[in-house]
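Give me the fold.
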Amino acid sequence: MKRIALIAFGAAALAMGTSAYAQTMEEGFPAGSLAVAAIERGDWATAERLLEEDRGLARDNPARLVNLGRVYMATGRTGQALAVWRDAMADRHPEEIVTAGGRVTTTDRLAREAIAHYEQALASAAR
């Protein structure tokens, strides 16, 4: 099983945000290809640059897409976030992962949860 850190909505932030920690959590992926350390720091510009660069990870990799959606949502690009999360959900080969919070799940589930979280927040705001 690949071990990666994905920042899922509602997950507590990790106290350790060092790049060494991020590299450990990105086990099975090219170091830095998921921009974990930048996401943990809230450095959205760096995270986006890392996710957009060719770092040996396919552009349509569902783990990459989940994290890219997180960056898009955090920077106010809701439509783009929803689009990449839908792409991650539709991937025929979801990745089984361990999140930064230690939960074992799959990329399609994380993408579905992210979309559901957005829709719940939208419905709450409309009330």
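Residues 62 and 88 are 5 Å apart (CA to CA).
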